[in-house]
Design brief:
The protein is mainly α. 78% of the residues lie in helices and 0% in strands.
Length: 131
């Protein structure tokens, strides 16, 4: 019973993550040129740093990914007032990482779109599984 409840919660979290991602995408589209540049550079740097330190996201242990998501979101909230572009970069990468360990179509949707966003903003490969 507990396993079933946990699985349903993770599925619901995937749907919630999809809504958060869609809202964040609209907000990121409204960034000015300077903050959009900071977002892109920050996202590229954060992703490349992750891959260098931990390897492909889906190959990292879930415990490390969960811890990283909490830390990134805390840091994003702290930076929001002073550097919104960097804050959004942290938030987007946290969506990518969280979606990597959640089940369901919504989480897969977020993972695929964050992968696409990461590749559009930098020199990261479009599909990190190709690494």
């Amino acid at each position: 019973m507990f396993g079933n409840l946990k699985a349903r919660w993770r599925q619901a979290r995937g749907a919630q993550l999809k809504r958060q991602f869609e809202n964040a995408t609209r907000w990121a589209d409204d960034l000015g040129d300077e903050q959009a540049e900071r977002f892109g550079r920050g996202l590229n740097h954060l992703f490349n740093d992750w891959v260098k330190r931990f390897g492909p996201v889906k190959e990292c242990d879930v415990r490390t990914r969960k811890f990283a998501v909490r830390q990134m979101r805390t840091d994003a909230r702290r930076r929001y007032e002073h550097d919104i572009g960097a804050s959004y970069a942290l938030e987007f990468l946290s969506y990518h990482i969280e979606a990597s360990y959640l089940p369901g179509e919504d989480a897969a949707f977020v993972y695929d779109l964050t992968s696409q966003t990461i590749s559009e903003w930098g020199d990261a490969p479009r599909d990190e599984r190709a690494r």
